[in-house]
Amino acid sequence: MKTELVRQLSPEEEELVAKREELARLQAQLADQELALASLKAELASFEGLYLRRVGVLYAELDEWNARLAELRAKKAGTPEAQAEATEARAQAEEAYSAAHGEAAKVQPFVPSADLRKLYREAAKRVHPDTATDDADRARRERRMKEVNAAYVSGDEDALRRVLADLDVSPDAVQGAGIGADLIRVLRQLRQVRNRLTAIEQEIANISKSDLASLKTKANLAASQGKDLFAQMAANVQERIIAIQQQVEGRFSGGSRA
Question: What own/partner pairs with CB < 8 Å and gap ≥ 24 does 237-244 have?
Fold first, then answer.
């Protein structure tokens, strides 16, 4: 009966195996965190678009009436101070109009499918720049990661599949090196991944504390209570618009209508 001899791994090989296993775990965790960050950004962009379409346009209209009122007052007063106030009010009105009618207002609701999330996670795990082995590799991965993020936000599953298919046949998928070089490479990759995980955690925390995220939380709470926060906000702004209109059209009869 033949006895097979199993070669015992050297300490360096054992360390390499252990570090590769750790890297694989952290890469999976990193893919999950990148997915969470991308989803958070997409959800907030979608929420902002809805806010701008329902409430932002009304604030833009309110600022327009405020600008008209300031301009009429400046014309009547004829003072540099009144003119400065009118100029500032007009600039604010133009800024509000641009925001309410710009690209951000066109973003539609973001509801990623389970397949889209799965594809993103796999693509992010395989192309993430923080698993690069050198500068050239990082540059390639950064380009790929932009493609992956854009496809995810737009809900393009086919684009994510194409990225994964390209990776399977890419020359970069073939790797080979000695144990010492491999161990150094893995250690550097581990450091990069850990740093990125820390950065994502901080970025998510910062985004979650933003005014937009706070408003979304309030809107979600109101919705859970059967209320429409945007409808309430819109009604409040409309009341203010009417009040300004009355001032412009009543006290300053020479003013123009919207």
Answer: 237/55, 237/58, 237/59, 237/62, 238/58, 240/62, 241/58, 241/61, 241/62, 241/65, 244/62, 244/65, 244/66, 244/69
